[in-house]
Amino acid sequence: MAIIFEPMNLAYLSLGSNEGNRILWLETAIKLISEQCGTLVKRSSVYETKAWGIAEQPDFLNMVVSIETSKAPQALLAAILSIEEAMGRHRTVKWGPRIIDIDILLYNEEIVDSPDLVIPHPYMQERRFTLIPLVELAPDYVHPKLHKTIGQLLVECPDALEVHKYASAEK
To answer: pTM of the full predicted structure?
Structure first.
């Protein structure tokens, strides 16, 4: 009997929530990602920020996790969309309020450009709420398209939204 080893890939995922018990939604997403997508390697601190895109909505909690996965990028996306749907995410308004939002930021050093998936995430370098937690996990990771480290991208980021480490418990 031959043993087949699936190659492990390193992916960085951003998680965000601004509805209901935001901490519970983030923790639930991490649990489901661990069960359905791969092994959790690291998780950043949780950060709070005003909404990006549409300002008139509740503040977001955001974080980044890294996972080892045997899933190819498209299969990882399918699993993530399934998790969002199972958690009650309804995509009605772009950049609108959401129970959970999970995005693939990076996948190995790969570049993916398809109609439903772009890796590296096309806006990550423009969003401090993504870069700050990502710097916690991978400050020296080199963006495969921009050829700059995540730390450099944070220094150069034009986003003016304040991002604060989140310390208080949800009500």
So the answer is: 0.91
Q: What are the angstrom distances between the C-alpha of 59 and each of 18, 37, 105, 120, 149?
A: 6, 27, 21, 25, 28
Domain ranges in the chain are: 9-113+131-139+157-165
Q: What is the DSSP letter of 69?
A: E
Residues 141-160: tens digit of each pLDDT? 999 999 999 999 999 999 98
Annotated catalytic sites, by residue? 89, 98, 101, 103
Question: What fold does the segment set 9-113+131-139+157-165 form as a domain?
Answer: Alpha-Beta Plaits (3.30.70)
pLDDT band at 3 (very low <50, low <70, confident <90, very high): low
Please list, in sequence order, all residues whose beta carbon lies within 8 angstroms of the beta carbon of residue 144, skipping any fewer than 6 positions away: 106, 109, 110, 111, 120
Cβ–Cβ < 8 Å for 71, 9: yes
